[in-house]
């Protein structure tokens, strides 16, 4: 069992930065690939980024490449999402999740059903 708690969301102007944190409970945190997803009003939840258990591989959706960076600190049971050059279209509730479906590769990392543990979400609002 893994419990996830996000923090760091807020209101920021376009071009600004935020860093989201996701604190995990449970001693097996470092065995999970972790992902960040987001959901805007009226839209489906979409993949943002993922990082493998040891931080060796990272994956990003095209719209955030070069602007967002996912990282993790297994000693602190925490995964981060550094978001720079924010745009109004980045406005959404951001969720972190722990991947529970076995296997690797973009297809599994980017699909919400691959993740069995989810946080409650944190709101990010980017004003123009």
Give an account of the 3D structure.
The protein has 128 residues and is mainly beta. It is built from one helix and eleven strands. It has one helix at residues 106-109; strands spanning 3-7, 10-13, 18-25, 34-39, 46-51, 58-60, 68-73, 78-83, 92-99, 115-118, 122-127. Strands 2, 4, 5, 6, 9, 10 and 11 form a seven-stranded mixed beta sheet that branches. The chain has a four-stranded antiparallel beta sheet with strand order 1-3-8-7, with no helix packed on it. β4 (34-39) and β5 (46-51) form a beta hairpin. It starts with a strand and ends with a strand. The mean pLDDT is 96.
What characteristics describe this protein?
single chain, 128 residues, mainly beta, four-stranded antiparallel sheet, 1 helix
SSE diagram, text form:
Elements: E1 3-7, E2 10-13, E3 18-25, E4 34-39, E5 46-51, E6 58-60, E7 68-73, E8 78-83, E9 92-99, H1 106-109, E10 115-118, E11 122-127
Tell me, briefly, the overall form. Answer: globular
Order of helices and strands: EEEEEEEEEHEE
Low-confidence stretches: none
Q: Beta fraction of the residues?
A: over 45%
Range of helix content: under 10%
**Main sheet record:** 7 strands, mixed
- CA-CA gap between termini: 40 Å
Kindly name the structural category.
mainly beta
Give the helix tally.
1
Radius of gyration: 13 Å
Question: Would you report the number of β strands?
Answer: 11
* Mean pLDDT metric: 96
What is this entry, summarized?
3% of the residues lie in helices and 48% in strands. With 128 residues, it is mainly beta.
């Amino acid at each position: 069992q893994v419990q996830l708690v996000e923090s760091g969301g807020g209101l920021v102007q376009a071009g600004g930065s935020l860093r989201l944190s996701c604190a995990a409970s449970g001693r097996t945190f470092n065995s999970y690939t972790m992902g960040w997803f987001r959901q805007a009003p009226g839209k489906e939840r979409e993949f943002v980024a993922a990082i493998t258990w040891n931080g060796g591989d990272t994956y990003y959706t095209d719209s955030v490449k070069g602007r967002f960076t996912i990282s993790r600190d297994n000693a602190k049971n925490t995964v981060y999402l550094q978001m720079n050059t924010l745009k109004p279209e980045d406005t959404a509730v951001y969720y972190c999740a722990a991947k529970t479906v076995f296997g690797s590769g973009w297809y599994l990392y980017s699909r919400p059903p691959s993740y069995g543990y989810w946080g409650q979400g944190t709101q990010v609002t980017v004003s123009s």
